[in-house]
């Protein structure tokens, strides 16, 4: 007897099994948390965690629906295809035909409607929590975007210099601006642009917002609040194409514990005896001498080299 030929259905099952094995082997290099984040960075705010949870469960729901659809497709293709050994096609070669199936039609209307309502509910509640604002934030920062850098002004009573000016940090082509903030405090960011539309984005916040020259005129909410869970340095970027040097319009968020932050603000209001000017962000951090967190320059990104002779054409 000859060896029986392998069916197309068997080949298809074999391919699916091989793909499942490949996915399983690839996933073994990731932790459970990494898999459930589906590519999102680790968040550092409660608002970021809420958005990541919404994203995770939305993707899981989509995968469940996808698996059911794929299973129905494979089942139909495998068990309801035309028989090859039929010499003449007849009614007996076709699946059972029917015109109406009321339970099935109700199912295909009701279930998607429930899914959309559930997704809308959790999306709306998450958005409401993320955009919620407390009446008296602990720290208020004016974020001013311009081509192609950032200025950060601290609008708090303890961030006033003796001459009445606000403590502020302005970036330049040679220095990445540091936005120093406290952990476990409510922070309000008030956004404004001096020229074109920019976008304030910190990936670990899982949040970004466009920065308009005239937000009131454009009917835009120009502020938001969050709180940072842990100390660290986090890169910030402009996420709106704003001109020639958009790609290098970066900044760095430096999150410090409340006691270190208070020390930093106090140093920013004092005069540097060497220069006779108020301490800059770099000088204040250097004077604190608290290890890596007080590094006086950005550690997550580098300034753009403006020296044309230092760059060469690529091959």
UniProtKB/TrEMBL annotation:
<dbReference type="GO" id="GO:0042773">
    <property type="term" value="P:ATP synthesis coupled electron transport"/>
</dbReference>
<keyword id="KW-0679">Respiratory chain</keyword>
<dbReference type="GO" id="GO:0004129">
    <property type="term" value="F:cytochrome-c oxidase activity"/>
</dbReference>
<dbReference type="GO" id="GO:0016491">
    <property type="term" value="F:oxidoreductase activity"/>
</dbReference>
<dbReference type="GO" id="GO:0005507">
    <property type="term" value="F:copper ion binding"/>
</dbReference>
<feature type="transmembrane region" description="Helical">
    <location>
        <begin position="56"/>
        <end position="79"/>
    </location>
</feature>
<dbReference type="InterPro" id="IPR001505">
    <property type="entry name" value="Copper_CuA"/>
</dbReference>
<keyword id="KW-0812">Transmembrane</keyword>
<keyword id="KW-0472">Membrane</keyword>
<feature type="transmembrane region" description="Helical">
    <location>
        <begin position="100"/>
        <end position="122"/>
    </location>
</feature>
<comment type="similarity">
    <text>Belongs to the cytochrome c oxidase subunit 2 family.</text>
</comment>
<dbReference type="InterPro" id="IPR008972">
    <property type="entry name" value="Cupredoxin"/>
</dbReference>
<dbReference type="InterPro" id="IPR014222">
    <property type="entry name" value="Cyt_c_oxidase_su2"/>
</dbReference>
<dbReference type="InterPro" id="IPR002429">
    <property type="entry name" value="CcO_II-like_C"/>
</dbReference>
<dbReference type="GO" id="GO:0016020">
    <property type="term" value="C:membrane"/>
</dbReference>
<keyword id="KW-1278">Translocase</keyword>
<keyword id="KW-0249">Electron transport</keyword>
<keyword id="KW-0186">Copper</keyword>
<keyword id="KW-1133">Transmembrane helix</keyword>
<protein>
    <recommendedName>
        <fullName>cytochrome-c oxidase</fullName>
        <ecNumber>7.1.1.9</ecNumber>
    </recommendedName>
</protein>
<keyword id="KW-0479">Metal-binding</keyword>
<dbReference type="Pfam" id="PF00116">
    <property type="entry name" value="COX2"/>
</dbReference>
<feature type="domain" description="Cytochrome oxidase subunit II copper A binding">
    <location>
        <begin position="136"/>
        <end position="267"/>
    </location>
</feature>
<comment type="function">
    <text>Subunits I and II form the functional core of the enzyme complex. Electrons originating in cytochrome c are transferred via heme a and Cu(A) to the binuclear center formed by heme a3 and Cu(B).</text>
</comment>
<dbReference type="InterPro" id="IPR036257">
    <property type="entry name" value="Cyt_c_oxidase_su2_TM_sf"/>
</dbReference>
<dbReference type="InterPro" id="IPR045187">
    <property type="entry name" value="CcO_II"/>
</dbReference>
<keyword id="KW-0813">Transport</keyword>
């Amino acid at each position: 007897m000859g060896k029986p030929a392998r069916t197309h259905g068997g080949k298809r099952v074999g391919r699916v099994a091989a793909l499942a094995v490949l996915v399983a082997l690839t996933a073994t290099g990731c932790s459970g948390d990494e898999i459930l984040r589906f590519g999102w960075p680790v968040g550092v705010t409660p608002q970021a965690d809420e958005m990541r949870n919404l994203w995770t469960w939305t993707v899981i729901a989509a995968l469940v629906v996808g698996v059911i659809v794929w299973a129905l497709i494979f089942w139909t293709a495998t068990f309801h295809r035309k028989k090859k050994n039929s010499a003449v096609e007849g009614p007996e070669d076709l699946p059972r035909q029917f015109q109406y199936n009321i339970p099935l039609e109700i199912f295909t209307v009701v279930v998607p409607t429930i899914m959309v309502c559930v997704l809308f509910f959790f999306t709306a509640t998450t958005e409401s929590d993320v955009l919620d604002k407390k009446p008296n934030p602990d720290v208020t920062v004016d974020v001013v975007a311009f081509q192609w850098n950032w200025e950060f002004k601290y609008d708090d009573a303890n961030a006033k210099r003796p001459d009445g000016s606000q403590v502020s940090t302005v970036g330049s082509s040679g220095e990445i601006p540091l936005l120093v903030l406290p952990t476990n405090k409510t922070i309000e960011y008030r956004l404004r642009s001096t020229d074109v539309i920019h976008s304030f984005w910190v990936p670990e916040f899982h949040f970004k917002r466009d920065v308009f020259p005239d937000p009131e005129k454009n009917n835009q909410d120009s502020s938001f609040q969050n709180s940072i869970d842990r100390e660290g340095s986090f890169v910030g970027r402009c996420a709106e194409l704003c001109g020639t040097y958009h790609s290098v319009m970066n900044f760095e968020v430096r999150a410090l514990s409340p006691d270190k932050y208070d020390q930093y603000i106090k140093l920013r209001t004092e005069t540097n005896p060497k220069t006779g000017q108020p301490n800059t962000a770099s000088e204040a951090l250097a004077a604190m001498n608290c290890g890596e967190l007080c590094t006086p320059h950005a550690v997550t990104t580098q300034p753009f080299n403006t020296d044309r002779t230092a760059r060469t054409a690529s091959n």
